[in-house]
Amino acid sequence: MKTILKILIPFVLIISIYGYNSEAASASTSETVFISGADYQVSDYINSSSSVYVLAKNTGSDPIFFLVVGPGLVAESKVYTLQPGAAWQGTIKTNSNTKHALALYCGGYKCNGTGNISLK
Fold it and tell me: Which domain of life does this protein belong to (predicted)?
């Protein structure tokens, strides 16, 4: 039995290390995303949920659009608009019970903002 374990344990460790896939790994419960300039940014994914809590703030001089997206950047919510100097917080009900991320899109050239998505 000890001989089998001595052979089996290193084999299992090697397979688990080299077989690790970050996309398939469990996501976190809260992720932050920042945007600056004429660009778009997407947070990392959080765990599966049918509704999420979002905080977003626009500190730039152009509007920012944000929405919740699923795997493959598929839209999971409607698009929200943040005017310069505005902030938004609330719960967003998503279209499916899958991993979600927060996407921020600049509506001009001088965007600056922050967003956070977390489990409700």
Answer: Bacteria
Burial bucket for residue 101 (CB in 10 Å: 0-12, 13-18, 19+) = buried
Q: What is the pTM of this model?
A: 0.75
Contact 110, 60 (CB under 8 A): yes
Q: DSSP for 11-25, please give it.
A: HHHHHHHHT--TTTS
Domain 26-119 belongs in CATH node 2.40.50.140: no
Domain residue spans of the chain: 26-119
Q: SS3 for 71? A: helix
| Nearest in space to 35 (alpha carbons), one of 10, 5, 65 | 65
Cα separation of 34 and 75, whole Å? 19
Binned at pLDDT 50, 70 and 90, residue 49 comes out as: confident
